[in-house]
């Protein structure tokens, strides 16, 4: 969907015109013109000086603009930090693709890349192997609860903020193997931290097993998980050990590429 199509699809009654104008104002700043005067902004946007002045004052108060030398305005680092989040996800997905393909090709199961979300782990990419029996319940865009499945459990294990928030709620039971007792789950999370990976055995979907490992960013925060999932019977014995080694080593190398 293009930007024009997305704008056309929005009900005008849901638009906040002042926000659109503020966005238009901020887009006036470029690498070639990092500082602009009130007159510059008025000419670039076609808005009157009073409106531009009010918008700029509001953006200064919000921390998005600051005063430059003389009677000029310039962007602060806040837009950069927000943009960096989007760039980081794009970079993460690009860097993760070879590892996803490598895991899927080697074992024939489905490899997943998940990132932390507000209400659970979000699957942002996946590569299916050649195994004729596939797990079709989890796809790109699926949000999985943090206390189930290998990827989400790894995120919960390595994030104190997620632990505090998630363990304070009533946990839903998905299968008979789902851990919903806070202390039992905490013990499992501590083991995941010690081991450096999580194994899922039918705790989210019956018949499905998985292995996941953490991917860390340059700040040593958990940025994502790499996981391999498939029919639970395929995650046993010596094959399980091979999967654990492959998933953890792939996650470590991806972390290194992200600056960890």
Automatic annotation (TrEMBL):
GO biological processes: negative regulation of DNA-templated transcription
GO MF, one annotated term: DNA-binding transcription factor activity
Coiled-coil features, chain-numbered ranges: none
PROSITE patterns named among the record's database cross-references: HTH_ICLR (PS51077), ICLR_ED (PS51078)
SUPFAM superfamilies in alphabetical order: GAF domain-like (SSF55781), Winged helix' DNA-binding domain (SSF46785)
Ranges where the HTH iclR-type domain occurs: 16-77
Domain IclR-ED per the UniProt entry, residue ranges: 78-260
The entry's keywords: DNA-binding, Transcription, Transcription regulation
Protein's UniProt name: IclR family transcriptional regulator
PANTHER family with a match to the protein in the record: HELIX-TURN-HELIX TRANSCRIPTIONAL REGULATOR, ICLR FAMILY, HTH-TYPE TRANSCRIPTIONAL REPRESSOR ALLR
